[in-house]
Amino acid sequence: MKTPLILDFDHSVSLEHATTIDLSSWQEAIRFGSSLKTYQQLSHYLARILPSNYGTVFMGSGDYHHISTLLIERMPIDEPFDVVIFDNHPDNMRFPFGIHCGSWVAHIAKLPQVHHIHVLGITSNDIGIAHSWENHLRPLYGDKLTYWSMKVNTRWAQWMGLKKAFQSFETSDDLIHTFLQMQANSTRPVYLSIDKDALSDQVVQTNWDQGILEARHMMAVIDAIKPRLIGSDVTGDVSEYTYQTGWKRFLSRLDQQAPIPLDKLTAWQATQNAFNQSILDRLMP
């Protein structure tokens, strides 16, 4: 098992036997979103300081999920691979100001080494008809991206010829069962990216509105794809932060991010770190 790596933007992750890189000075610039110029500056910085070999990467809050793009771009593999993402949101939304935690999937969909992307556990109305225009449609039409959702009305996608890209279910069990059946005969390498907001808030508490998956659903998928894993990352931890930048405060309010009750933060982070360790234990050979 390779040593886990913590990209420590927000001091929310604490794991024994992990390598930690302090990136707190980047928090305001990168959290939630950034310009492409700033994002490339971080990419160049990480290229200089990242260990040559590392295991699962922990990045803190789901506000940093777009950092997965940098990690996926770095995968030292020549053959095409799939990306399996747990997320309550599609992360394939339009963002004209650069890249952010809700738009990064559109960026990795452009990478030639990425064969297909599966986003598992969506219950957000981001894929409903009211927000349909915000979704990047090219990777959906191009058979590069599939949404796996529950209890969201996605009939608009059928009207637009996107039925195959929208896998809709009533229950978590049905979704996971169908996905595992589809993966049963696959031999393609897989990169796994976990945002724990796909989980019910009875499992962990995150910064974002949450889905309905249970821990057993996530672990079943890990067990199924583990022999083919080439890399993995985890976000969805919980931290409190006040943006200094006006546009970030504005967009955060639009996304209806609820404030974190500070009297519960320590307990929530302890639960999160215990769950992070359970993910690492499940990923072990």
Automatic annotation (TrEMBL):
InterPro entries: Ureohydrolase, Ureohydrolase_dom_sf
Domain of life from the UniProt record: Bacteria
Molecular function terms from GO: hydrolase activity, acting on carbon-nitrogen (but not peptide) bonds, in linear amidines; metal ion binding
Protein name: Arginase
Organism: Wohlfahrtiimonas chitiniclastica SH04
